[in-house]
Write a structure and sequence with these properties.
Elements lengths: L1 H17 L1 H21 L7 E7 L4 H12 L3 E6 L3 H10 L4 E5 L3 H6 L3 E8 L3 H28 L10 E8 L6 H32 L1 H7 L4 H29 L9 H25 L3 H18 L11 H8 L2 H15 L7 H26 L1
Parallel strand pairs: 1-2, 1-3, 4-5
Antiparallel strand pairs: 3-4
Helix pairs in contact: 2-11, 7-9, 7-10, 7-11, 7-13, 10-13, 10-14, 13-14
């Protein structure tokens, strides 16, 4: 019995050693998981991109903005001249917070009745909560400082705080997490379908020996590739439609933008993910290998793209990694159209990287697929 058991164990180790790709993925996957969760994931969001409309220009206004910067929660990147510019930056996703200081800020602060408007993009509840809490704490701190100064000057005290931070949450005022996460799952579903189904479909043909039969048949190579792609695209669009219906009617996610625009831009995103699926099929010999490689592409995309955790809370290195993940840009498109109702004029900064990625990856995948058929 011992010798038989030893023989089976030895055979399994030999097979595992021969399948170097599966062995490498099995050992490498936990490292990737630990790397992502231990280093990149951070729910304490700081350095939120901020736009400022300073209509006062006073010394007190500059001190307030310095306090915003010194809190490390706000990163003032834009100084604008009108409320419309703040709205444009928040709609386009360049800014997550807008600060509006009124013209009479210094005068009203001296009378201890100043108001400052803080506009927060609440389509991401984690970012919005951090920004709103930081703004409220900063307003309370500045109020205490003003009160201490006025007490020393024997000024009559009033019950209301000297500085009132008027926070307004746009797009998701109740900070419902489902409104943020559910639209993003549309991108995750499209990626999962186009990558894994495409890769497995080609590898399964190779395992069964039917791929060689298709190669020697009168079918042209582009017809074979297109015949594999079109059903996957239709399946992905079907999943997308079902997800949007459930999001709207079950989770009360508002759909404020153009659905035809969303479907059209989704095709650009799937152009690149289909290319990834074809590349995975070329690198895999078996279906389990294809599934492992597909999962390896999902892992950084799901956790580093902003689907579940805000990119603003990640270290700089992780933000650079997020910048090369196509799902990062598609999530901005989905949430921009569904939650904000913006049009193509605001989406070019996210669309162009998807076009470049799709062109490069799909071209490489087609060349690799043709070479494999040869």
């Amino acid at each position: 019995m011992g010798s038989r058991l030893y023989g089976i164990i030895a055979k399994e180790f030999i097979q595992l050693w021969r399948d170097r790709l599966a062995l490498t993925l099995a050992l490498f996957m936990p490292v990737v998981m630990l790397f992502i969760f231990g280093w990149a994931i951070n729910t304490d969001v700081k350095h939120v991109p901020t736009a400022v409309l300073d209509q006062s220009g006073s010394l007190e206004a500059r001190r307030l903005l310095e306090a915003f910067e010194n809190s490390q929660y706000f990163d003032i990147r834009y100084l604008v001249a009108s409320p419309r510019e703040i709205a444009r930056l928040i709609d386009g996703g360049q800014a997550k917070v807008g600060i509006v200081i009124p013209p009479d800020y210094a005068t009203r602060l001296a009378r201890r009745e100043a108001e400052v408007q803080v506009i927060v993009d609440a389509s991401d509840p984690q970012v919005a909560t951090s920004a709103m809490n930081a703004a409220a704490a900063l307003g309370a701190d500045r109020s205490l400082r003003v009160l201490s100064e006025t007490v020393q000057g024997n000024v009559v005290r009033r019950d209301q705080p000297p500085l009132d931070m008027r926070v307004r949450a746009w797009y998701n005022p109740d900070l419902v997490s489902a409104i943020f996460i559910v639209p993003g799952l549309v991108g995750a579903l499209l990626m999962q379908t186009t990558i894994s189904v495409m890769a497995i479909a080609v590898v399964r043909e190779r395992e069964r020996g039917t791929l060689e039969a298709l190669i020697v048949s009168p079918i042209r190579r582009w017809e074979l590739l297109l015949g594999k792609i079109i059903p996957n695209l239709l399946l992905a669009y079907g999943q997308m439609t079902m997800a949007l219906l459930v999001a709207h009617f079950v989770f009360d996610v508002p759909i404020r933008g153009s659905l035809p625009l969303l479907y059209a831009l989704s095709l650009v995103f799937m152009w690149g993910t289909l290319g990834i699926g074809i590349l995975i099929s070329a690198a895999s010999r078996t279906v389990p290998q294809a599934m492992q490689l597909a999962f390896l592409t999902f892992l950084p995309s799901i956790y580093l793209s902003g689907l579940l955790f805000p990119i603003e809370g990640m270290p700089v290195g992780a933000q650079y990694l997020a910048a090369i993940i196509p799902l990062t840009y598609f999530l901005r498109i989905v949430r921009g159209i569904v939650l904000k109702g913006i049009g193509i004029e605001y989406l070019w900064s996210s669309l162009l990287p998807l076009v470049a990625f799709g062109a490069v990856v799909f071209t490489l995948s087609v060349l690799r697929f043709r070479k494999q058929l040869d």
